[in-house]
Amino acid sequence: MAAQGRHGGRKSNKMTALVVDDNMVNRTIHHQLLDNLGIENVAVGNGKEAVDIHCSGKAFDLILMDMDMPIMNGIEATRKLREMGIRSMIAGVSTRSMEQEIREFIEAGLDDYQEKPLTVSKLISIIRKIN
Amino acid sequence: MEVVQIQRNLVDYTKSLFMEGFLDGQFLQLQQLQDESNPDFVAEVVSLFFDDSQKLLNELTIALDQPIVDFKKVDAHVHQLKGSSSSIGAQKVKNACIAFRNFCEVQNIEGCLTCLQQVKLEYYLAKNKFETLFRLEQQIVASGGSIPMIEMGF
């Protein structure tokens, strides 16, 4: 029998996600939110690590991208991933709420944007946009 | 004390934290992520938050003590603290960070120093409140009871 997440997500559908956030508290919460929906996921600490993991050949259905991070921020990482031809759903997740701050992030290649803190319902609304 | 009484105390105490504005609905979100497969999830995340915040507060203290203050750096630290406090529902810490960032923006050193003291105060108050909350939970579990779910109508 296929393993099921707490909210009924089937692990057998192999939906995968990458959490990109420099904050350990947020990484842990986002990891658990995805886990509970039955989505296999890994987490990295900045945009460069997100680019590197894709260069190593890994691919994900969903990328939850923070905006403010050291080394490479979410805007640069999103732009770079799109340049590399990555077509995964990239959702920006940040505490930024000013329209002009978010615009540059969206223009870098986001499919969706959600203001932190991320919740189950916000995550479900992102997942519904996949496909 | 009977386990039913401790359970009642926990419910009352948790509700008081919401009523007094220490916690917001995000804390309930966190609780909903905890289940039998990860019974210590909330305590672990809160512990991560306090460790991380302590480091940030130390770095902020040093950054604001420099002859020439790098407000961009100060703001980045406060931004981090605001993000993680909002993720665990520590509302008073988050609100203190919002006020702090306003003084960073206008590069007001006195305002920043006052806000740092306020954030530190809220940090210690929140830590104390969470410790009491988890102690009550531990007492319930040790007495063979289960943790009551708190409904706050968010």
UniProtKB/TrEMBL annotation, chain A:
Residues 16-131 form the Response regulatory domain. Keywords: Phosphoprotein. GO terms for biological process: phosphorelay signal transduction system. It comes from the Eukaryota. SMART domains: REC (SM00448). CDD domains: REC_hyHK_CKI1_RcsC-like (cd17546). SUPFAM superfamilies: CheY-like (SSF52172). The modification 4-aspartylphosphate is found at D66. This is Response regulator 24. PANTHER family: TWO-COMPONENT RESPONSE REGULATOR, TWO-COMPONENT RESPONSE REGULATOR 24. Pfam families: Response_reg. The keyword Phosphoprotein applies. InterPro entries: CheY-like_superfamily (IPR011006), Sig_transdc_resp-reg_receiver (IPR001789), ST_Response_Regulator (IPR052048).
From TrEMBL, chain B:
GO terms for cellular component: cytosol; nucleus. It comes from the Eukaryota. Keywords: Acetylation, Cytokinin signaling pathway, Cytoplasm, Nucleus, Phosphoprotein, Two-component regulatory system. The keyword Acetylation applies. GO terms for biological process: cytokinin-activated signaling pathway; phosphorelay signal transduction system. One of its GO terms (molecular function) is histidine phosphotransfer kinase activity. The modification Phosphohistidine is found at H79. It is found in: Cytoplasm, Cytosol; Nucleus. Residues 38-143 form the HPt domain. The keyword Nucleus applies. Functions as a two-component phosphorelay mediators between cytokinin sensor histidine kinases and response regulators (B-type ARRs). Plays an important role in propagating cytokinin signal transduction. Histidine-containing phosphotransfer domain (HPt) contains an active histidine that mediates the phosphotransfer. This is Histidine-containing phosphotransfer protein. It comes from Hibiscus syriacus.
